[in-house]
Design brief:
It contains eleven helices and five strands; from the N terminus they run αααβαβββαααααβαα. The chain is mainly alpha-helical and 258 residues long. Helix 4 packs across helix 6, helix 4 runs parallel beside helix 10 and helix 5 crosses helix 8. Its EC number is 1.8.-.-. Keywords: Disulfide bond, Glycoprotein, Immunity, Lysosome, Oxidoreductase, Redox-active center, Secreted, Signal. This is Gamma-interferon-inducible lysosomal thiol reductase.
Length: 258
């Protein structure tokens, strides 16, 4: 079972219980759906070992390199948010076995060094700098859960207000204070400086955001194809055997349903 299906089922079950006033059942395991197939022990505890075995059986050969999609963006840029929410995250959910994502929140910001620290000036104001820093620290602290958290933030009406509840949803073991300690401290400052260096090192130099790279390369043709249909682009760029999602081939597997 794909991670996306597991997440959707979990959300449907939770929301339906709330809507109908039923008491919530005791969780079958302590792990979020995105982690159910991470190890055999977790799969057994969450009672999804059969689905995980099926999922692993259809995975591409790990020897074939994944397509790396880089997104250089700003947390409050409407165009960046639209691409991340409507193209990048859904494509990653369906093609995560053949695709990696690199997020670099900085974009058109500027930095200056004062007294050993860096100060940042963002295109959409101080709130955007705050959003960039929060998302950078989330990536540093939560690792595998970072992209779903950032998607949750960017798809919300208020990116900053959504940060803490999105963190609690996808990384409940991480305390909000840990993220804010990074945001306000030297670690976050240095991480944001690294984002600035990565952005300023782009060749060709970025002219706008969202700025998309495929396997480290940017051309106007790749940008246009990514913006119009990232899913098709990733499938076409993958050099290994195409997964069923790319080919439309049917797989007769014994699926369970929510």
């Amino acid at each position: 079972m794909k991670a996306y299906t597991l997440i959707v089922c979990a959300i449907i079950c939770l929301t339906s219980e709330k809507c109908y006033g039923k008491s919530k059942p005791k969780p079958s395991c302590q792990y979020p759906p995105s982690q159910w197939c991470k190890t055999l022990e977790i799969a057994i505890e969450c009672k999804v070992q059969k689905q995980c075995l099926e999922l692993n059986a259809t995975k591409p050969d790990p020897a074939d390199p994944k397509v790396v999609v880089g997104l250089y963006y700003e947390s409050l840029c409407p165009g960046c948010r639209g691409f991340l929410v409507r193209q990048l995250f859904p494509t990653w959910v369906m093609l995560m076995d053949i695709m990696d994502v690199e997020l670099v929140p900085f974009g058109n910001a500027q930095e200056q060094q004062h007294g050993g620290k860096y100060e940042f000036l963002c295109q959409h104001g101080d709130e955007e700098c705050q959003g960039n820093m929060i998302e950078t620290c989330i990536m540093n602290v939560t690792e595998d859960a970072a992209f779903p958290i950032i998607f949750c933030m960017e798809s919300s009406s208020n990116v900053l207000s959504a940060a803490q509840p999105c963190l609690q949803l996808y990384a409940p073991s991480v305390k909000w204070e840990t993220i804010m300690s990074c945001v306000k401290g030297d670690v976050g400052n240095k991480l944001m400086h690294m984002n600035a260096l990565k952005t300023n090192a782009l060749k060709p130099p970025h002219e706008y955001v969202p700025w998309v790279t495929i396997n480290g390369e940017h051309t106007e043709d790749l940008q246009d194809k990514a913006m119009s249909s990232l899913f098709s682009l990733v499938c076409s760029m993958y050099k290994g055997g195409k997964p069923p999602a790319c080919t439309g081939a049917l797989k007769k597997l014994d699926r369970s349903y929510c």
